[in-house]
Amino acid sequence: MPEGSSVTTGEILDNRMVARDHFLMRVFLPLSFARPLPGQFVMVRDCRLSGPLLARPLSVFGFQRRPDHSVMELLYRVAGRGTSLFSRMKPGEGLCVLGPLGRGFSIHADVKRIVVVAGGVGIAPLSFLVDEGYRQSPSLEKRELRVYLGAGTEELLTCRERLSGVCDLRICTDDGSLGYRGPVTGLLGEELHEFAAEDTAIYACGPTAMIRELGRLLRNSPLRCEVSLEERMACGVGACLGCAVAVQNAAGRREYRRVCHDGPVFDLREMIFNGS
Amino acid sequence: MIMKKETPGQNPPDLTVAIGGLVLKNPVMTASGTFGYGEEYVPYCDLNRLGAVVVKGLSLEPRLGNPPPRIIETPSGMLNAVGLQNVGVRAFLSEKLPFLRRYDVAVIANIFGETVDQYRRVAHILSGAAGIHALELNISCPNVKKGGVAFGARPEAAAEVTANVRAETDLPLIVKLTPNVADIAEIALAVEEAGADGVSLINTLTGMSVDIEKRIPHLANVTGGLSGPAIKPVALRMVWQVVHAVKIPVIGIGGIMTAADALEFLIAGARAIQVGTANFVRPSATMEIIDGISDYLTRHGLGSIDKLIGSLNTNPSNGD
Ligand SMILES: Cc1cc2nc3c(=O)[nH]c(=O)nc-3n(C[C@H](O)[C@H](O)[C@H](O)COP(=O)(O)OP(=O)(O)OC[C@H]3O[C@@H](n4cnc5c(N)ncnc54)[C@H](O)[C@@H]3O)c2cc1C
Ligand SMILES: Cc1cc2nc3c(=O)[nH]c(=O)nc-3n(C[C@H](O)[C@H](O)[C@H](O)COP(=O)(O)O)c2cc1C
Ligand code: FES
Q1: What is this model's ipTM?
Q2: Which residue segments constitute the domains of chain A, with CATH numbers given?
Q3: Which residues of B195-219 are buried (b: 16+ CB within 10 A; e: fewer)?
Q4: Global pTM?
Q5: Which residues line ligand 2 (CB under 6 A)?
């Protein structure tokens, strides 16, 4: 349980569609809500309890401290009942926020090259990482920030404006409607030889198939890569053991970790990929 | 956090309850498997205010648990098939219990085995440890292949494991019952005769959910245990039946989300209650429930919770 986590009632400032099925929600929070680290997430639900029983995990996409309050941004894709309900919430309505939760990305002060691999709405925690972790750091001039951003088709792409000015953005679409035609891991695979293990850090978030492909690509590579994982959650705080993910421990044995508490960010090398 | 409301000039009602030799400052406990080892909820709850913390089920050796996905939300509830993943009883004592002992709260160890001998050995290890206030015997988990539910489904088997653990420990002994049986009162009677100091019920109801797009079960384990508001009426009915079948205290569990839910169980005769899935929805649910029970007693002019427990009038026309 990270330092400073709390249950807070936030107020929706606005909630608008930014691409097909994708919404950006801005939430007003009191200063008592702790500043999230890149890669951390929150468990959110409609305060009226009229929706699903359990809160839904969403990554922090943006966070700004103001003198007397904070504004948190959430970027979400409508995937089912819970997120569909979020998409219909109106400014002024109360959002119950539990967090910030989990272990975020490691920030490396020394690396020269930051490589971000995002599939779909997986860009949410990664955009916050670019913003908070790297863009504002003073030594940026000497650094390359490259973002591979993938989606099924152009209409589903988000964050282009936010990212295009601050990084070397490489867009991939499955149907080729914009940028590289094919999955992000396809383009990354072609360009992997450009990176050297000593000065590169890779960060990724996206659908399971993408993470698995990344695991395959980097299996015999010395490149370091952190991934943010998704699993269904109930408590979000490490108590229910519902969000298990299989990893290989230091002794080489299979064990389960909690995505919410031990992650959501894991070292790609620890992950065990099987057929499922 | 919600602070206790003080009515000026009025003593707060007495919430103390006893289960066998175990005296609790109030009847609100956390249900096994829904509150970790307590630590996870420290930012949201004052553990000192809880009646008891029932820790995640402990076995003799560490258990890996089931493969994911392990949970899925269902209408007004959720299914879980965690499979009793736990650190094992020895690691619990050395790594988890010291933290809980810093708090002024009763610690109840929920235990589970695949054989009677395993139950006995876990009970033995815990009985020798300082800081454990009672044992809760899980003879009802539906998510493991061996043991678990097998003991809870037949009165003879339930009595056998209870008697064996009874012989091993002087700690207050609570037996947790499964609802997945034809006659729960019969099992309750059997464990009472075998020496249980109390029974707790219900554990989860076995259920299932299918992903129609992929045509696969939502849980890797195929079936799982249903918990949450969906099971409350069933739990309440079973508690009511068991209260009338046994003399030992009954602890009510199942879908308790609010103080009003808890009061239903207490009025039906439960001596205490456990809060499970509600912890996931509102991490400070137990605090709100304790405050709500206290406020209710004050509002109804009841000085102690004893006056409320079992006060259900099933024949209102003959009442006052
Ligand atoms: C740490 C973490 C951070 C996340 N951050 C974001 C984010 O920033 N933006 C965003 O759009 N989504 C994010 N997700 C995924 C998001 O939580 C799910 O899409 C959401 O819970 C689905 O809820 P629902 O009720 O709309 O869908 P449901 O009806 O519950 O399910 C619809 C589909 O989504 C899948 N699903 C359900 N829960 C999850 C889950 N927890 N993770 C992945 N898939 C799930 C189901 O298997 C099903 O295929 C994150 C998940 C985790 C674990
Ligand atoms: C995720 C989860 C894990 C559980 N683990 C255990 C366990 O280890 N031992 C046990 O006796 N009961 C376990 N239970 C059952 C609960 O203690 C409780 O009996 C049940 O959830 C019903 O109460 P509720 O509706 O308030 O959740 C678990 C329940 C859930 C939801
Ligand atoms: S969601 Fe409960 S342990 Fe991770």
Answers
A1: 0.92
A2: 6-101 (2.40.30.10), 113-230 (3.40.50.80), 231-276 (2.10.240.10)
A3: bbbbbbbbbbbbbebeeeeeeebbb
A4: 0.94
A5: A 240, 242; B 31-34, 56-57, 80, 82, 84, 110, 138, 141, 176, 203-204, 227-228, 231, 253-256, 275-278
